[in-house]
Amino acid sequence: MLYLENFTFPTEDQEWRFFINQELKVYNSYYPFQTIVSKGVQTINFEPITILSGSNGSGKTTILNVISEKLKLSRETPYNRTNFYEEYLDMSDFNLSHELTPSSCIITSDDVFDYMLNIREVNEGIDKRKSEVYEEYLDAKHANFHYHGPEDYNKLKEITTARRQTQSKFTREHVMDNIREQSNGESAFNYFTKLVKDDGLYILDEPENSLSPKLQIELVRFIEDSARFYNCQFIIATHSPFLLSIKYAKIFDMDSNPVTTKKWTELDNVKIYHDFFDKHNKEF
Question: What DSSP assignment string belongs to 210-263?
Answer without folding.
Answer: T--HHHHHHHHHHHHHHHHHS-EEEEEEE--HHHHT-TT-EEEETTSSS-EE--
